[in-house]
């Protein structure tokens, strides 16, 4: 089968590798959609740890083509995939902090993932979706699951004023989730005009261009701020605009070497809650349900589809102006 492998830092190659066979409690799916994520770029640049000679891609789903013994899924079922595999037996897993599992493995990060024609996965990682679902949406279930986890931790309440700092796919999903949660104001902050326009169509009540205007002068007393850009400056802005006792929810993946200065005194006096939300424990099923329900507008988020052959060049380049999410599709 065809697969895109990370052969060394900075290098992705399209290669032929053996098509996987399912063992007990495993299944193989034909990849129908796999989202390209900022994390994939970080991995390619050596800014996020990953295994070498590995098939990247952790935001995917597809059609079941083969099942091993002990698997209830049927050939032809459509499934979304939770890429994060936890051990279930370490101290964090036993305490239901599975995002911090000491033996965490992840399809597309430490095990072969979705940038391939076929993918092998344990049955525990597959979530059934309706057969008539637009298969492209399978590339957005995992990022949505991460956003739902962020929502759970942020505890947005009806009537809250919410700021979303960053206009990528996570930002666009968070805008829609906080709208569903009843936020009274949803302010999206991003540099790109095209993205600000899309955010308004998805439920933002206003937007700010952080280059033209000083975010920290315009906004204050925000109840919940979501940092979804993975940039130290937006983190600082998020802290500055959030009210005393409010929540700064960090969802954006910053480069692992990036650090930020902030006032510990300010944190103390204002009682800020700064919460990191990592991956998607216990939320993949809800994400699959929500996407299947049709309540989210995903078509405005998917900017382009990419073939496996095109992927190395696309991932090496910067995304186009105004583009939000690229989805790799399987070969027809
Ligand atoms: Zn991702
Ligand atoms: Zn564990």
From TrEMBL:
Family matches, as Pfam families: ADH_N, ADH_zinc_N
Zinc listed as a keyword: yes
Residue ranges of domain Alcohol dehydrogenase-like C-terminal in the record: 170-281
Domain of life, per lineage: Bacteria
Family matches, as PROSITE patterns: ADH_ZINC
Cofactor: Zn(2+)
A GO MF label: oxidoreductase activity
Keywords: Metal-binding, Oxidoreductase, Zinc
Domain Alcohol dehydrogenase-like N-terminal residue range list: 23-130
Chain ranges passing through the membrane: none
PANTHER family attached to this UniProt entry: L-THREONINE 3-DEHYDROGENASE
Family to which the UniProt record says this protein belongs: Belongs to the zinc-containing alcohol dehydrogenase family.
This protein's name: L-iditol 2-dehydrogenase
Organism of provenance: Candidatus Nanopelagicus abundans
Species classification: Bacteria, Bacillati, Actinomycetota, Actinomycetes, Candidatus Nanopelagicales
